[in-house]
Each structure stands twice: as structure tokens, then as C-alpha cells.
Amino acid sequence: MSFKIYRSASSVFLENTDSPGHFRHVDEGFSFDELFQSEDPRGYVASVFESASDGEAIDPGTPFQAPIGNQEIWAAGVTYFRSRTARMEEAESAGGDIFYDKVYDADRPELFFKCSAVKARGHMDVVCIREDSTWDVPEPELTLAISSGGKIFGYTAGNDMSSRSIEGENPLYLPQAKVYKGSCSIGPCLVVGDPFPPETKIAVKITRGSEEVFGGDTEISQIKRGLDELAGFLYRSNEFPQGAYLMTGTGVVPDSDFTLQEGDIVSIQIEGIGVLTNAVEKV
Predict the structure, then answer these.
(1) 29 touches 48 (CB < 8 A)
(2) What confidence tens digit (pLDDT) does each residue in 199-256 have?
């Protein structure tokens, strides 16, 4: 048994995925912080689901807030060969390409802080590109929900917005390329359940007006590192009393002649989770 958790502005909706379309509306008694702190997250959700009242089916076009309490969101980089190639390409002129080549094969992964809970955007909210950037892309990523004890118990879709021009100018500019207003969205829901199969697809589509200007997909199996390995490195010599989210890197990168524009619509779909959709603004 697994569950999908949707968060609206006023309440939480739970769906039993064994009975698709069976939603329950939770007015009280559910806390994302308690979920992430639980020794049995799935049991916690099941208990809340059993005591909740039946609710109406959810419209996929409904805006949802990020499924988060007080968790930090972190991200892993260069976990796919395609990402390694793209990062080397963008950093070549600055002499930084060697670092991306080395980290792909290194024992220690690249991990970086992405977003605090209050800055995370949700489904149908806006994500942003920087006004001082000239080359911007979304990064569709399977995102892990990790308990305060370091256990992976859930999954959501994530958009790790990135300025390729800023990071490519100098790898030391990565925080500015990755961490800014509207640079992170997760959703549309949090799935609490078993790990997804390796062939699970991660897809992205970008539309501009009525035209699709980019599309692509990959599979979880293409991630070079194990998910437990990534979570383990995140928790090394660190602590997350309310748990954490970890984006696992991207394997879908547009060619170097593509950049996002204000008004674009980014849709990220992961099998078993759903579609995370965001409009693009410039800040």
C-alpha cells in the first residue's frame, strides 16, 4: 500500500494508490514534520487516512503547495552521464570542466543546499530565471523524502532551476546559479511507499505559447549512484531533525542553443507521481 499526499492552501488530501481516485480530506491530525520524524512513515499516513473523511477527486489543474513542512531541500549534481557532459561543456571556457569530469567518477558525490521550506514552490506556481543570467534551464529530478533518521520513505518530482551561464563562468558561482528566488519547485504530491522500479521514466516538456520547444526523458536506472548512497552522504556528519528532501540530479539537459524565456511552461512528469507544472518568470 502506498499513498499520495497533496497539500492545498488550507488542508491536505490523501490518496490510496491501491484505489486510484479514492481521496480523503484531512482537516487536522496530519503534520509533514511528524511524518518525516516517524519511525514508520507509511504507518503514520495509513493511520491518518483511516481516520480522515472521504473527499472529492482532485483536478490535476488545481494549484498545490509544495508537500513540505520544515524540511530543507538539497540537491545532487552530475549523477547522470548526460549531466556530466553538459556541465563540462558549459564550464570548458573557464577551465572548470575537469571538476565535473572528476566528480562523476569520484567516491564522494556533489551535494549542495538548494532551498529552505518557505522558499519552495509547488504545482502551478511560478519558477524563476535570473535577470543577470543569459542561459537558463529546468532540471527534472526524482526527489527523495528522507526521514530524520536517514531513511528514504517517499518520492516527489523536483525542478532544480539552474543558470548555466553563471555556473559555467566559474564553478564557485554555483550557489548563485542554483539558489535564488523561485529556483526550486517540488510536487504535485509526495508519494509514500515502495521504491520505484529502475525503468521509471522522468520526462520534461517545455512549451512556449502553443508550441513545444523542448522535450526529453530518461530513466531512474541511468542514475550512476544508488539512492541510498546519496542519502547516506547527505547525512554524513550532518543532522536533519525534521528530515530532508534530496534531488537526485538530472539526465535530461537541453542542447546549448536552448534557454528558457519568461512565460514558458515547464511540465515534469514522473511515472507513479504525476506532473509538476510551473510557469517561468524573470527576477
Answers:
(1) yes
(2) 999 999 999 999 999 999 999 999 999 999 999 999 999 999 999 999 999 999 999 8
- Residue 124, C-beta contacts closer than 8 angstroms, at least 6 positions apart: 61, 62, 63, 64, 277, 278
Angle at 11 (CA atoms; ends 9, 16), nearest 5 degrees: 125
Tell me the DSSP string of 177-232: HHSSTT-EEEEEEEEESSPPPTT-EEEEEEEETTEEEEEEEEEGGG-SS-HHHHHH
> Looking at the whole model, is its pTM more than 0.85?
yes
- Are 11 and 27 in contact, with CB atoms under 8 Å apart? yes
Whether residue 121 sits in one domain with residue 239: yes
CATH number (domain holding residue 142)? 3.90.850.10
Helix, strand, coil percentages in the chain from 3-state DSSP, rounded to 5: 25, 35, 40
Q: Which of 10, 22, 15 is nearest to 46 (CA)?
A: 15
SS3 163: strand
Domain extent, residue 20, equals: 3-55
In a shared domain, residues 97 and 224: yes
Which residues in 64-86 are b (16+ Cβ under 10 Å) and which e?
bbbbbbebbbbbbbbbbebbbbb
Same domain, 173 and 51: no
CB-based contact 163:183 (threshold 8 Å): no
pLDDT, tens digit (0-9, with 9 covering 90-100), for 97-137: 677 778 888 999 999 999 999 999 999 999 999 999 999 99
